């Protein structure tokens, strides 16, 4: 095929190229100059009045005007339908069936940016179709060849293990437009020259941007001060959405070459993100094992702690004291798998240049299905504030859980960190048992419950507990009743029998009958403050013993 038929790799065969077809010498553009960049995929002839029902996107439609020779106003009524169908342009051959193109049709086409050409009288439609398709096919052949070269170039970067930043920079150079990648870890990959797009993206979180890219298909969205950006969702490891690729749709819209390249690039990026995520998970497993062994006291000396930390790629805190803080969910139980993913997510965020300097003194890990943080700082308040910042990064949605931070005593050496962890666990357990829901809890803040914990293993305390618990437990066992649960709930609701009945889904009279039975069995009266205090202490001791026997 003659080289002069080939189009530039950066362009497509567009409506503007129709003006340069050899057969159409004398053609005139009558309307729609704004739409001359519309791509043309094929040419078709329109000689029936209902052609809008059959028209296809990208078509250059040609007509002699025969369908509306007796009613030229019909042409105006068809234009909105053709625009809606995505037709590229309309060519009208005048002087045979209609003398000229109606002015109202020209005005309407101008309004829509829909090109209308007045074709010269000598126009042979079959010749126009042939010339159009020659150029379209030539351009597509050339485009696919260059597309293949671009994909090979980008694939080579992946094979050489180049970082995603370099991949994005290369893609930007190929497309000659700003490109950025935002992944679900909150990491933003952009070249040094893509500052305009980067500034736009940094204004929102990944969750907000991913909402713009909802669905499997790419689309163009106006995201900032009337600047259009194309969002291409990236899928990795079968995840619905793991990243979004952003490409500036300004100063000129994406060409067909750009769109085809993005379709192939999204696969390459998805594969690379899968590999990155796999590496992170493996690294996290080594780090998790070290942190678990350290906090559970399985590493005997500080020297061994340093050796294991170095082997797992863990940066030990430099500041002292070191606090262990257990983040206890208040209103919902979180699945261990989701907690582990949140920790991996947090670690990937802290790798980012713009956050690392703020969070390198905090590390999270999941131990026995609980979210635990190691935080170094001047005091416990500083450590708690730092952990709150980490939780905000891990759980960024408004409906995410709230936490009570159960804090162990500050450790002044690495081998004392296990003691801080054990205390944090005890604070959390006592808080659960006693219903403490404060945002920050230490052993000192637990008051009388701390004393109950210290007494929970004493023989006298066990005897005191059994004096109240055993009669109720024995009665419940032999009668299939719930006296112990009723007593516990009644005390929790400050002796409000109606609220107790509602909480237990039990009739009010049944609750009152149970309370009378409890008073009879224990020889107490709920009206006496001292009797209530002793029963409540016994119940708390019983709950503590049951909880602690599981750890």
TrEMBL record:
This is PucR family transcriptional regulator. It holds the Pfam family HTH_30. Residues 17-135 form the Purine catabolism PurC-like domain. It comes from Paenibacillus gallinarum. Residues 483-540 form the PucR C-terminal helix-turn-helix domain. It comes from the Bacteria. Coiled coil: none annotated.
